[in-house]
Every structure is written in C-alpha cells, then in structure tokens.
Amino acid sequence: ELKVEQNPLFLSMQEGKNYTIYCNYSTTSDRLYWYRQDPGKSLESLFVLLSNGAVKQEGRLMASLDTKARLSTLHITAAVHDLSATYFCAVVSNSGGSNYKLTFGKGTLLTVNP
Amino acid sequence: GAGVSQSPSNKVTEKGKDVELRCDPISGHTALYWYRQSLGQGLEFLIYFQGNSAPDKSGLPSDRFSAERTGGSVSTLTIQRTQQEDSAVYLCASSLRFQGPLADTQYFGPGTRLTVL
Questions:
Q1: How large is the C-alpha radius of gyration of chain B?
Q2: Interchain contact, B111 vs A42, CB within 8 Å
Q3: How distant, in Å, are the alpha carbons of A53, A110, B7 from that of B54?
Q4: C-alpha angle with apex A83: A110 to A105, nearest 5 degrees?
Q5: Which of A107, B19, B45, B89 is 20 to 30 Å from the Cα of A25, by its Cα?
Q6: pLDDT by residue (tens digit) across A11-58?
Q7: Which of B59, B93, B109 shows the shortest C-beta gap to A101?
Q8: Angstrom distance (rounded) from CA A24 to CA A36
Q9: Residue A38 in 3-state DSSP?
C-alpha cells in the first residue's frame, strides 16, 4: 500500500524567509501532484511532476521530484503572507492502468507572519 | 468560463438515510474525480471516471457508496444508509483528459459538506 508522508505538518515562517516542504512516498510512482487549500475552500492544483528530475516553478514556489529517492520538495522563496495555506502532496499509483489511485499526504499548514 | 459546480453545498441528513451528491464538470472535460476530506481521514481519493466508465471502484469506502456518470458529463455520488463516519466534505474535480500532459491539471469544485446526525 502506498504511503505518503509530508513534513513538516506545521510551518510558521517569517515573510522574506525561505523554506522547504518534503513529501516522501513508499512505492514507485511516476506522477506527483502538489495542491494548495485555503481555509474553508476547495483544492487548487499547483504542480504536476511527471518524471525524475522534473522541476516546476510558479512565482515563489518551486517543486521538484526525485523518483529514485521517492521524494518531492516544495520550496518557498522569500515567503509572503499570501502563501499562507495548507499544502498537500499526492502520489499516483498505477497511473497508466485501470487501477488509478491517488494517495494524499496529511498536508502542511503554512503560516507566514509579517 | 464556468468551473466545476457541486450541489448541494451543504447537506444534513439523519443516519440511515440515502443521499445523492451531484457534480457538474467543466464542459468538455472527459475525466472526473471524486474525493472526500474529513478531520479523521484527511483527503481520500474515491473514484474517477474516464468518459462514462469508472475502471476501478475499489477506492470507494464501502458498498454503500456508488457513483455514476451519464452522458460523459454530470456525475452523481450516492451514499446509501448513511453513517456518522460518512460526514465529510466531498470534492469533485475534472480534467480535460485522463492521460497525457493535458490531463493533469485538475479543477476542483467547491465541495459538498455532508453531515450525518
């Protein structure tokens, strides 16, 4: 059974600082998602990482994937208050088959303080 | 254009009753996904549809749960004989296709909050 672990689960940081959220998973996968969720809101897709070494950037967020290490990172650069949200990673198993399944991490609650 | 819509936004029901949750995906999106989010279980993937077919139903929590999609568009998630542990926010998402790079961005609806008393 695929297990997905995120850390940290809670992250409080100051504006302007950098930090990284980690997502480890237990079995082989070729597709990983990062999502953002604001309080009381639905999910927003941030990134999809499809191959080993994939790196994607959007604004102050950069995501990378190392399939050999079964690790993805979400790096935050020069944080701003608007980035405060919960961030989830999710890993696909059997992406090309009929038994597609998506397993989520528990989420990282990010609070960016002035 | 219009995003993914879900109805109702809130549903309160009594234990043992059946409920139907509806999802209207973005027009032209062939892939549709159901998830639920609860305090106890976090985010869980339930089922996906490619067109009208759902290749794998093993993610559904129990046989009280069923889902269908008609005409390649609207989907309905039905929970029979609801239990208190079914209380959660049920999220629907759609994407243009299931496979391939264009498939991968999922657009989420606002969710249906289900409370089983």
A1: 14
A2: yes
A3: 32, 35, 21
A4: 45
A5: B89
A6: 999 999 999 999 999 988 878 999 999 998 999 999 999 888 889 999
A7: B59
A8: 18
A9: coil
